[in-house]
Design goal:
membrane, transmembrane, five-stranded mixed beta sheet, alpha+beta, single chain, elongated, 5 strands, DUF4349 domain-containing protein, 3 domains, 7 helices, 284 residues
Length: 284
């Protein structure tokens, strides 16, 4: 038993003393891996309509190029599998760009298309800063709508059969016609809602948002580190300028005060002699 304990302790110590492996991946790749979308596809969540949203930060001069690459990737898939539904490219100021590209994809392609989009951003010296996948359980809603439509069709068949009855009173016929019209409107609304949800299962919306601005050092000319150095330099220059202004204002007064002091020291003996001469005359 003691030998077993000793062996276990040696194994534990060997594990603790093992040097930590250093990753050869750059920080940007690590951040990308940490922020990439979870491995969830339509086959893992049947009946759920997904909505993908990504936000990227990269140098302003590369945004138009990467946006074009993403659009070309969608076009290569074909209009039946990927469609561009929106686009924006806006110059915010002399430095920053705000852009967007929206797609509708075949659900089975959405996750891989998002990963390929992140890879294109990384190649352009950019980074993924936000990733969101939201889902709606439309499968259950479709099932409920189908059952409701079946009940509406059954009720409509009953009313139509009643309307075919001979010698039906006019008042009852009018009431049945009104009920039949209400059933038709309810069926139409339910069908429209169900088809909209079925469409959300057939296509997956995806939005790429692009932006430039304050990034980690090395990704943009106006990174926080460079901003800090710039602010420090501007502060030093401001302090030096302030000291120059203060000294420039005080130097004339200092010169005037020194001149007055020097003149006083020069004429002070003469004034003292003048003060002492009347005393000598009075004593004599």
């Amino acid at each position: 038993m003691r030998k077993s304990y000793t062996l276990l302790m040696l194994v534990a110590l060997a594990g603790c003393s093992k040097p930590q492996e250093r990753s050869d991946q750059p920080n940007a790749d690590v951040a990308e891996e940490a922020l990439s979308a979870p491995n969830i596809g339509p086959t893992a969540a049947p009946g759920v309509a997904f909505n993908y949203r990504y936000a990227f930060r990269l140098p302003a001069t590369r945004i138009g190029e990467v946006q074009e690459r993403h659009a070309q990737a969608c076009e290569k898939l074909g209009i039946d599998r990927c469609r561009i539904t929106g686009m924006r490219y806006r110059l915010v100021n002399n430095h920053d760009v705000d852009a967007m590209l929206a797609f509708k994809l075949e659900p089975t392609l959405a996750r891989q298309f998002g990963k390929d989009g992140i890879a294109a951003i990384t190649q352009a010296k950019g980074m993924l800063v936000d990733s969101e996948i939201s889902g709606e359980d439309v499968g259950t809603a479709i099932t409920v709508a189908q059952k409701a439509e079946a009940r509406l069709r059954s009720e409509r068949a009953r009313i139509e059969a009643r309307l075919k009855a001979p010698n039906l009173p006019a008042a009852e016929r009018a009431r049945l016609d009104a009920e039949l019209a209400d059933l038709a409107r309810s069926t139409e609304a339910s069908t429209a809602g169900r088809e909209e949800k079925q469409e959300s299962l057939a296509t997956t919306p995806m939005v790429f948002n692009y932006g430039s601005g304050e990034l980690i050092p090395g990704f943009d000319a106006r990174s926080p580190l460079r901003e800090a150095f710039g602010t420090a330099g501007a502060t030093i220059v401001g302090v030096v300028a302030f000291l120059i202004v203060v000294l420039g204002g005080l130097i004339p007064f200092a010169i005037l005060g020194g001149a007055i002091g020097f003149a006083w020291r020069a004429i002070r003996p003469t004034i003292r002699k003048w003060q002492e001469k009347p005393e000598k005359d009075a004593n004599s």
